[in-house]
Description:
By secondary structure, chain A is mainly alpha-helical. Chain A has helices at residues 3-42, 45-79, 81-114, 121-150, 167-171, 176-205, 210-244, 246-253, 286-292, 313-343, 354-363, 366-382, 393-396, 404-430, 438-446; strands at 156-158, 161-163, 259-260, 264-266, 269-271, 276-278, 281-283, 298-299, 385-387, 391-392. In chain A, helix 8 crosses helix 12. Chain A is globular. Chain A starts with a helix and ends with a helix. Chain B is mainly α. Chain B is 81% helix and 2% strand. Chain B has helices at 2-23, 30-41, 45-62, 64-73, 75-97, 102-132, 155-176, 183-214, 216-224, 226-247, 251-273, 284-287, 291-327, and strands spanning 276-278, 282-283. In chain B, strands 1-2 form a two-stranded antiparallel ribbon. In chain B, strand 1 (276-278) and strand 2 form a beta hairpin. Chains A and B meet through helix 2, helix 3 and helix 14 of A and helix 3, helix 4, helix 5 and helix 13 of B.
Amino acid sequence: MDDLLAARSQMAMSLAFHIIFAAIGIAMPLLMIIAEWKWLRSKDEIYLTLAKRWAKGTAILFAVGAVSGTVLSFELGLLWPAFMGYAGAIIGMPFSLEGFAFFTEAIFLGIYLYGWTRVPPRAHLFAGAMVALSGALSGVFVVIANAWMNAPTGFRLVDGKPVDIDPIAAMMNTAAIPQTLHMILAAYAATGFAVAGIHAFMLMRDRTNRFHRAALNIALVVGGVSGILQPLSGDLIAKTVAKTQPVKLASFEGQFQTEQAAPLRIGGIPDEQAGVTRYAIEVPYALSILAYGDPHAVVKGLNEFPADVRPPVAIVHVSFQIMVACGVAMMLVALWATWRYLRCRRNQKWLDSKWFLRLLVAAAPLGFIAIETGWTVTEVGRQPWIIYGVMRTSEAVTPMPGLIVPFITFTVLYIFLAVITVWLLLRQVAASPHAPDPIAKEARVAA
Amino acid sequence: MIAALVLYALLGGADYGGGVWDLFAFGPRARAQRKLIAEAISPVWEANHVWLILVIVILFTAFPPAFAAIATALHIPITLLLIGIVLRGTAFTFRTYDVQRDDVQRRWSLVFSIASIITPILLGTILGTIASGAIRFENVENGLVTSGFFSWLAPFPFAVGFFALALFAFLAAVYLTLETRERELQEDFRRRALASGVVVGLLALTVFLLAQTGAPTVRAGISRTWWALILHICTGLFATSAFYFLWTRRYRLARVCAAAQVTLILLGWAFAQYPHIVEPNITITSAAAPYVTLQLLLAALIAGVILLFPSYYYLFRIFKSRSNAEGVR
């Protein structure tokens, strides 16, 4: 393994690890405060228990997210010093703002976690809301910085050096809004579905448990709403990519030939040697419509671009297919849940179908699979560039030799952390309270 | 940025020290000592940790080439530092949420405290190397490091590392005297504070002597200019009064003095190094980001401070006011 590959692997592994905790850190506080808000409104103790339980899980995950985030902020410089030296002045701004947002989050999380008995209930709920808000904001800022790497603006190149730097313009790059929207929704959808899956699983074993019913309700609303909205933001992002990074779009779709009225390929394996994508189901005109809103629009193929600016097509295309498949599946589950809810609104039986619960359990990991593959799509799809069209990844890497050592060290460390985190969370779940629901019990007896 | 560094040292540093004392908790009250440390740290844990992140992001926004240079030359100690930070952060939280059984708890405590000892040493080593002038470049523009990747393996940086550790331990012990109202516990930490204070003094002397060969320019900055003298006298005064107040058990005053002492040490270091960011050839002006970036960053900093300080204060008031009131006699 050469040093560039080791550096990329270490960065990829660190990001893949951090993104899970970051996404949960964005979405979990929202679930927490919804539960707490329902408790304040209904005075039903079950919601208080729920908020406290979720807060505990959040605390564990937040700690891992915080340290892995710290590692990343250092790794930017450790692994890509040339990139940071070049781009720090242009996109350091969102990182600094992220620092502040994260700071706010940490302060209010401290108050939230340890202040149950020390601050008045409303102040406590406010602290939770601040955690949720600043968590989402820090996600937004980091993704803005990433969006800039895809659509660099806010400077002029003179003799290979950036001049006339405008950090605000850099933050307002064309990819910023679609990408942040997509990521935040992804965080809510993935976390909502994962939490719903866990509680659905517990509910299957203990059908009348009100605690899990309440939890499932909240998680499904958050996950479901974002799951239904997500394909729309995905469409927005694809249209931006079509405009700013046509070679990336072509890799998403495994499009080798430039084509008028291009079809949408579902599945399939791109063969870079032969320049074709095999075994795909082709939906005529669909790609032209999706990317440009016109069935006869021309979609540029990979062959238009020299080989040394093309990303590894197979990885990008396959990841993209997996991400889309997970997203569509989640949307369908969300739609079914909505339909069930509307149909059974009166008798509270909408959670009583065994198949529905099983489906929710099965759908639990989909969101995180989509996040991981989606991040692969955007990062690998940008290769060989670290700043699209400006700086190559190979130019940014540190001259430090032996990078495989830190890569392996951090991988082992992270695997260890992941195992312990999962084990601690399992203990939390296993210790869930028993709270039989009298109404549901009667209903079941009557049925 | 210096402000953030100072605050990280004052608050995060105290947490490190807490970890150190956690390891050295012994005697009949060992368990009570550990519990006190955990209670004192938990609510403010994550927030204190963020100061370090702020230092980093400000460094790479305002002085990108300096960040690139430091990260390249000090790749190895920074990587080790990161591992330390990861282990501390997670071990601490895991300990809180894991089984409350003694052997399990002790295992996490061990990880937490060993990481807490190594991390400040590395932090000090990194700062020491930056100050020593051992990092050399072909030129600042391309950030090509010519001094190799092992410039930190020298006596001076390590002396600074141990100095940082002793300083953090001293701070933590002083703070902890105020976190409890049990007389015996207070006495335990008072003794520790006094002992580590002596070590701080000895190490300070070592660092100063080593600086002659290890960091000549900084040493010159410390010993020659007129303001340095004033700064030294103040630092010394605060150090002795911290000692005196500890001796006479006036813990609140001791805390103020100890904090002032650490602040002045860091400020003194910053002034001595000015205008260099990385000795000997990266200066503030040569590494600075364009004016507009700095302006925006400053605006963001001010806005952030306006927003953050009340919340931070609120956090501390909620969790620290009660114990303070009880700590005073």
